[in-house]
Specification:
The chain has seven helices and five strands. It is α/β, with parallel strands linked by helices and 165 residues long. Strands 3-2-1-4-5 form a five-stranded parallel β-sheet, sandwiched between helices. Strand 1, helix 2 and strand 2 form a beta-alpha-beta unit.
């Protein structure tokens, strides 16, 4: 994958990093999402995930899966730009853009100690919970109450028209 940021990694690079980090005694936390139009709720959520300890990996939905989840007109920003923004955050150790509808395969590949999800979930409602537990990990709900939403931010902003000078 060609990228301008070293924290944006391929699937193979991520497997290698996870093995290296684990061998060094680090815990691994995985989180995932669309992260379309990064907002303060995302930042707080990622910081809380980081505070679980060890290394934080963000699995980022590819453009097609964002469209399938959020509808036409999404994502607002392409995956490569969303990944670069996430990779620039000090709480994030690695970013992987993934095409699948969920992160079950990634969980099997890297076997995270923690799978962090936001407060719009409960431990029981996390779709990948069974996979996390089968791999010896734990689902953890982190972040503040979900009162920020990229969908709402986009919906509440007027669409700018052509500029006239």
């Amino acid at each position: 994958m060609s990228t301008s940021h070293p924290k944006i990694v391929s699937r193979e690079e991520l497997k290698h990093l996870a093995a290296t980090w684990r061998a060094a005694g680090n815990f691994i936390t995985l989180t995932n999402g669309c992260f379309d139009v990064l907002h303060v709720g995302h930042v707080r959520y990622l910081h809380a995930a980081r505070e679980l300890g060890g290394k934080l990996i963000v699995a980022l939905n590819a453009d097609a899966s964002v469209r399938a989840l959020k509808g036409e007109g999404r994502p607002v920003m392409p995956a490569e730009e969303r990944a670069e923004i996430l990779a620039s955050l000090s709480d994030v150790d690695a970013v992987l853009i993934f095409p699948e509808k969920d992160v079950r395969a990634i969980i099997r590949e890297i076997r995270p100690n923690f799978h962090a999800k936001g407060t719009d979930y409960t431990e029981e409602s996390v779709p990948e919970r069974d996979e996390v537990e089968a791999c010896g990990g734990r689902v953890v709900i982190v972040g503040d109450l979900k009162d920020h939403s990229a969908t709402e931010i986009i919906r509440s902003r007027p669409i700018p028209g052509p500029r006239t000078s």
